[in-house]
Amino acid sequence: MINKETIATPLRRAAESGQVPGVVAAAATADGVIFEGAFGSRDLATGAPMTTDTVVWIASMTKAVTGACAMQQVEQGRLTLDGDIAAVVPDLRRVQVLEGFDANGKPRLRAPKRPITLRHLLTHTSGFSYDMWNAQITRYMAETDTPGIITCRNVALTTPLVFDPGEKWEYGISIDWAGKAVEAVSGQTLADYMRDNLLQPLGMADTAFRIGPSQRQRLARIHTRGPQGDLTSTDTEITQEPEFHMGGGGLYSTVGDYLRFARMIMHGGTLDGVQILKPETVALMAQNAMGDVVCEPMKTAHPAVTHDVDFLAGMKWGLSFLVNPEPMPTGRSANSLAWAGLANSYYWIDPHRKVAGVYATQVLPFFDPAAVGAFDAFETEVYRAVGP
User: What is the model's pLDDT at position 388?
Assistant: First the structure.
C-alpha cells in the first residue's frame, strides 16, 4: 500500500514554509498513478490555491514532446537522424560559427566544418546555445539587436553556433529548430502537428502553446525570488501570438497531463492502448546518443533568470532527454531519463524500475535551491514508498 502522506510531506513543507509559492506533483508506476498532490498558492498576489489541475508553463519540458514528434517523423522516413537537416530546413544553410569579436566589437563568423543533423539538434551537440548560459551569445545578440528566443520571433533563431556541430555539448535553441523540421516535413504548424499526433491521442487536453479560456482560469503565475528570498508574483507569459511555436520551451500543461507523456515513454511508446512511438524508437531515444561527448555544467550569464546548473558533469544526452549513467541518490536507476523547465518544473522517467514523476512550481531564477530541494525530497519519498 503506497503511503501517500509521506510523499506529500516535503511538498507540503516547502509550500507552508514559504520556500515556494505553491507546488504540484504526481507520480506513477507500471500499475498507474500512485500520487497527486498540490500545496500552497498558484498566485501569491491573490492567494488562489495550487490545485492538481493547475496549468503551468513547463518551458523546456516541451523539448521531449517536440523530440517525440520528430522521432515520429523518423519512423515514417520523412526525417533522418544523421542526414543534413538543412535539406529539410534551408534556413540552416546560413548558419555560421562565432569565433569571437573584432577590435570594433563586430562578430567574427565562419562557415561550420560539417552540416547539422537532427541527432545534433536532439542532443544539444549542434553548436547552438542559449544566451542565458553563454556570454558570447549575449554579446552577439546585443551587437546585432537580435531578440531572445522567448519572444518567439523567427529572427531569434538566427544566432550563430559557438562550436562546430558534433564537437561538444551546449544547451540551447537546437530543439526549436527540430520543431521547424517537424513543420517542414508534416506541412502543419508544430502546434497542430503536436495536437493531432501526440496530445489528443494521449488525452493531454490541458497541454498547448496557446492558453485556452479553461486553462487560464487555472493558470499559475510565475514568481521571482528577490535577493532576500522574497517571492513576487509577475505577469510573465509566453506570447500568445508567436511567429513560431517554440518547440524548445513554449508549452503550457498540467502535471497530470505531463505524467501521461512520461508514462507513455516509460511503457515503450504506448499508453492505454494508444501507440505514439514504436518500442524500438523509445529504446533508441533513451540511450546515450552523443558518443564520447559529455554534458558540461551550465554557468549563468543572466543570474536573474537562472542559477548555475552544476549537476550535469559527466551526464549524457539521449534523443531529447538527459540520461544519468549512474544511479541517483534519490533511488533513480542508472540510464533513466529526465529534464526540467525554466520556472523550476522537473520530471524523471525510470524505465527500469517503472517509476515516473512530475513536479512543478513557478519560480525564477531556474535551479532554485528550495525548489530543487523539494523535488529531490519528493522523488526520494516516491521511491521509498514504492519499495525495492
Answer: 82
Of residues 130, 171, 258, 359, which has the active-site annotation?
171
Catalytic pick from 60, 126, 129, 345? 60
Helix 4-16, helix 369-386: angle, nearest 10: 170
Residues 351, 286 contacting (CB under 8 angstroms):
yes
Q: Per the structure block, which three cell numbers stand in for 196?
A: 493531432
The predicted-structure confidence for 263-288, as pLDDT tens digits, reads as follows 999 999 999 999 999 999 999 999 99
Fold of 4-62+188-386: Beta-lactamase (3.40.710)
**What pTM was estimated for this model as a whole?**
0.97
Is 63 known to be catalytic?
A: yes
Say whether 354 is catalytic. no
Active-site residue flag, 60: yes
Kindly report the number of other CB atoms within 10 A of residue 267's CB atom: 20
Residues of the chain within CATH 3.40.710.10 domain(s) are 4-62+188-386
Length in residues, the chain = 388
